[in-house]
Amino acid sequence: MVLPNIGRSTVPLRVSITHYIEAPFGAHQGASRMEDHEASMTESRRKPRLRLPPMYTLVRVRPHGQGRYCWTGHIYDVSAGGMRFELDQSLDPGTQIDVRAMLPGAHHITFNATGRIVRLHDDDDVSGPARMGMVFDEFRHGTDEDRLSQYLSDVGLKAA
Questions:
Q1: CB 98 within 8 A of CB 114
Q2: In which region does residue 63 sit, left (phi positive, over 0), alpha (psi from -120 to 50) or beta (all else)?
């Protein structure tokens, strides 16, 4: 994958494509205990996900319909149907949100979507940012969906 430009230096960008339906969380190299636990849950994803280096991503989140983005976080993986991300604020499953997401790389993109939180990935007793998964219900504009689809295609992830 090509590199994001940060100031005058260039930083290598590594992304990996993971088909969670075919190879559940614990089946790929470098899986964590949290991912092993998630693999034991019923798998509801229908589209393969692209794993991203969180430090090169950005997501802005607000309650659906609000004017101002309230929270900022990082994206862990994304597909045409949703994404996993972290925020300092935990949001309850079912919460409707609007997101503005920036994905890294030579062909970095920004897209806007509306969706809902479908799962939390963190234990309550662990301090730090809360990881959660969302499903996209709609994109702000058709071009947002097209940009995400093209980005995923450019890195070799085919739409399901």
A1: yes
A2: beta
Are 19 and 48 in contact, with CB atoms under 8 Å apart? yes
Cα angle 106, 29, 36 (rounded to 5 degrees) comes to: 115
Q: How far apart are CA 146 and CA 111, in angstroms?
A: 9
Q: How far is CA 97 from CA 7, 21, 63, 125, 150, in A?
A: 32, 26, 5, 25, 23
Q: What is the pTM of this model?
A: 0.70
How far, in Å, CA of 158 to CA of 109, rounded? Answer: 17
Q: 137 near 93, Cβ under 8 Å? A: no
Which tokens belong to 87?
Answer: 């925020």
> Mind listing the pLDDT tens digit for each residue in 53-110?
999 999 999 999 999 999 999 999 999 999 999 999 999 999 999 999 999 987 789 9
The alpha carbon of residue 109 and the mean position of all alpha carbons in its chain are separated, in whole angstroms, by 13
Instruction: Fill in the amino acid letter for 10.
Output: T
Q: Among residues 122, 101, 111, 99, which one has the least CA distance to residue 150?
A: 111
- Any idea which residue has 């430090």 for tokens? 55
Domains of the chain in sequence order: 5-154 (2.40.10.220)
148 closest CA partner among 98, 83, 94? 83
